[in-house]
Design goal:
The complex is a heterodimer. By secondary structure, chain A is α+β, with helices and mostly antiparallel strands. Chain A folds into three domains: 1-20 and 95-229, D-amino Acid Aminotransferase, Chain A, domain 1; 21-93, ATP-grasp fold, A domain (Dna Ligase, domain 1, 2-Layer Sandwich); 231-375, Rossmann fold (3-Layer(aba) Sandwich). In chain A, 37% of the residues lie in helices and 26% in strands. Chain A has 13 helices and 18 strands. In chain A, helix 11 links the parallel strand 16 and strand 17 (337-344). In chain A, helix 10 (287-298) crosses helix 11 and helix 11 packs parallel to helix 12. The longest helix of chain A has 20 residues, at 163-182. Chain A is elongated, with a radius of gyration of 26 Å. By secondary structure, chain B is an alpha/beta fold. Chain B has two domains: 10-122, Rossmann fold (3-Layer(aba) Sandwich), CATH 3.40.50; 140-288, Rossmann fold (3-Layer(aba) Sandwich). Chain B contains nine helices and 14 strands. In chain B, strands 3-4-2-1-5-6-7 form a seven-stranded mixed sheet, sandwiched between helices. In chain B, strands 9-8-11-10-12-13-14 form a seven-stranded mixed sheet, sandwiched between helices. Classes of the chains: A alpha+beta, B alpha/beta. At the A-B interface, helix 9, strand 16 and strand 17 of A face helix 4 and helix 5 of B.
Chain lengths: 381, 292
């Protein structure tokens, strides 16, 4: 789960990192009042979780409160990569002498938490890593001891920080590492970390991405979830305990297991169709969850057919089939449904499905081909 | 022969009295696995599976009481990392963790502690392993298997079953099928299992089922090119997955410039592995590579 800039900054500030905090505003008038309280020139920044907001015109300077109001009026309501801006951050404008990148990431390749640092901040670190790999330090930390003092020194020397900045840098890196660990993050980054004209280090922008599996022990962070940037269908799915990601195609997919769900999407594409979603219904395929999954899939008006692929294994196929038929009867909108159930009692399952006028298939390839044909309005082959 | 689990495996189940633990312990025992002990703190002295399996309060007591040499963990995510460490502390050398949703930072510590202790961990968030005709540990349905000479390793659950079923239907049996788990930090990598299959004299061919995210498949491809001389076939799920989204498995995410299905397919193909577009093509690719 990604946190907005202002939330990420709040967390870093609570760990002693000097950040340009500012105030959030949801109306131009609020932006003006915030700029008035801050005093002096400010930056008006769109609070969206998608990248590239600067290029899209979502970050603007304002010399005074009146201009802050005008810039906020332009940015609020603007659409950046399909996300409507509903909140802006008003932060004091800083005079920048230099920009650094400083991040902490869970690095699965080295199975370690790693510090990433570069003296070329202010641009995407992936870009720097591609164009000038020597400018990026990737320092894995000890898995049990975490950030040690010699790690801090190594990063500070790599960045070429002047002696008078090294003490402040140490407390920033330690604060960042604490924030990372105590919030169960996948990523915590400051970009840019600037040296101001006054010779102080300051975090101008921050991003924290949380490990979804760690959220159960951080209800305070879970409460920071921004529903504005999620598909309503994805919110409904999460509440029903279903893994769901909306896509652009016409064939809704309902599958048990994440790997099989991806493979099912791939086969839809291979058969000449486009999947409308990724959906992993989880273990057991219980009737109430099947019903919720159907409603979520059919909420998408682009869906012309549904492909159900359940590898029952130990689950009894006839029970799953009955659940699907019952759930289908409760639906407002009906589209052709191709159902493939493998597992114990698969033959009985097929009888139940056929009696309810559902299209069945023995193999996954066949199921995908039939779903694509059904979405095109063709009769099953 | 086989790898990891066989007739000699003496299995302990942590969380045996829970709903999942009880159900799958029964299925494992019915398949022929020696389920010798269960652990549920506070239920020591009771029995599970209709009186056949003694339940202990701690793994330590269970090991001393029954000589268990492997553990299968079904405890809920908040307690699972500790359960893995408890098994390692008690001298268990092989731990399967089925539990999904363990925080990555917990797993990071567990990974290194187990590595230093020389304990083999499979998972977490994995379906386990089956050596057909001998034993199964975990949740893979026993009915889909057939005894034979193909080793299979996978990052997924039901997709694995799909491929195993297709192989068994085509008359291609398995030495062992191993699910290594879909999380970003897992105890055992593709390379670890490929190495075991490569050294197992009865495994004549190897099937690998990968998915988007990370670079495990690419590293495995480099290992195959260097070490493996047995015929191999692979399927990689997620060609249609959009970048930046977590596709169910915490590990299945395409990040900036890496982890795509195409890069994994290309790396494996360059290493001489036959690539399937559909799980159903795996048997014919194996036959074409000369597997009987």
């Amino acid at each position: 789960m990604k946190l907005q800039e202002y939330r990420s900054k709040e967390i870093l500030a609570s760990h002693g990192v000097p950040v340009s905090v500012g105030e959030v505003a949801t109306t131009p008038a609020q932006a003006r009042a915030a700029a008035d309280r801050i005093g002096g020139p400010v930056v008006v920044k769109a609070q969206v979780l998608v990248g590239g907001r600067g290029k899209a015109g979502g970050v603007k300077l304002a010399a005074d409160p009146a201009e802050a109001e005008a810039r906020a009026a332009e940015i609020l309501g603007m659409t950046i990569k399909d996300v409507t801006v509903r909140t802006v951050l008003i932060a004091p404008a800083a005079e920048i002498a230099h920009e650094y990148y400083l991040g902490i990431v869970l690095d699965r390749a080295s199975r370690a938490v790693a510090v990433i640092a570069s003296a070329e901040g202010g641009v995407e670190i992936e870009e720097t890593a591609r164009t000038n790999p020597d400018a990026v330090l990737r320092l894995p930390l000890h898995p049990l001891l975490g950030l040690l003092e010699h790690n801090v020194r190594r990063v500070a020397f790599f960045l070429g920080l002047s002696p008078d900045l090294r003490g402040q840098f140490g407390s920033i890196l330690r604060g960042l590492a604490e924030a990372f660990a105590s919030s169960d993050a996948d990523l915590a980054e400051i970009n840019p970390l600037v040296v101001t004209a006054g010779g102080e280090l300051l975090a101008l922008d921050a991003k924290i991405v949380l490990d979804d599996s760690g959220l159960y022990r951080h209800p305070d962070l879970e409460a920071m979830r921004d529903a504005n940037e999620e598909e309503p269908s994805e919110i409904a799915a999460r509440e029903a305990g279903i893994n769901f990601i909306k896509l652009d195609g016409s064939i809704g997919c309902m599958v048990n297991g994440a790997g099989l769900a991806m493979a099912t999407m791939d086969l839809v594409k291979l058969a000449g169709g486009e999947p409308a979603n990724f959906l992993d219904i989880g273990g057991g395929a219980k009737a109430d969850r099947v019903a919720a999954a159907f409603r979520i899939i059919l909420d998408d008006p682009n869906v012309r057919a549904i492909l159900v692929n359940i590898f029952g294994g130990i689950t009894r196929g006839d029970e799953v089939a009955r659940g699907i038929v019952e759930a289908r009867a409760t639906l407002q909108r009906q589209v052709p449904m191709v159902v493939r159930i493998v597992g114990t009692n698969a033959a009985e399952a097929a009888q139940i499905l056929e009696a309810a006028n559902l299209i069945t298939a023995a193999s996954l390839d066949e199921a995908a081909a039939r779903a694509v044909a059904a979405a095109r309005g063709e009769a099953p082959a | 022969m086989s790898i990891l689990v066989d007739r000699e495996t003496r299995l302990l189940v942590q969380g045996i009295t829970g709903r999942e633990g009880e159900f799958h312990s029964r299925a494992m025992a019915e398949y022929g696995t020696q389920v010798v002990a269960g652990v549920t703190p506070g239920k020591g002295g009771q029995t599970a599976l209709d009186g056949r399996v003694p339940v202990f309060d701690t793994v330590d007591e269970a090991v001393r009481g029954t000589g268990a040499n492997a553990s299968c963990i079904f405890v809920p995510a908040p307690a699972a990392a500790d359960a893995i460490l408890e098994a390692a502390d008690a001298g268990i050398g092989l731990v399967f963790c089925i539990t999904e949703g363990i925080p990555a930072l917990d797993m990071l510590r567990v990974y290194w502690v187990l590595r230093q202790a020389g304990v083999r961990l499979i998972g977490p968030n994995c379906p386990g392993a089956t050596s057909p005709g001998q034993a199964k540990v975990g949740i893979i349905p026993g009915s889909i298997h057939r005894e034979g000479a193909v080793g299979l390793v996978s990052r997924s659950g039901t997709l694995t079953y799909e491929v195993v079923q297709a192989m068994s239907d085509a008359g291609l049996g398995q030495t062992t099928c191993v699910g290594i788990g879909g999380d970003p930090i897992v105890g055992t990598s593709f390379i670890d299992v490929l190495d075991m299959f490569n050294q197992d004299p009865e495994t004549e061919a190897i099937v690998m089922i990968g998915e988007i995210g990370g670079d495990e498949e690419e590293r495995a491809a480099a290992f195959c090119a260097r070490e493996v001389r047995k015929p191999m076939a692979a399927f990689i799920a997620g060609r249609t997955a959009p970048p930046g989204r977590r596709m169910g498995h915490a590990g299945a995410i395409i990040s900036a410039g890496g982890g795509t299905a195409e890069s994994k397919r290309a790396a494996l193909q360059a290493a001489g592995v036959s690539i399937a577009d559909s799980p159903s093509q795996i048997p014919s690719l194996l036959r074409a590579a000369g597997v009987r």
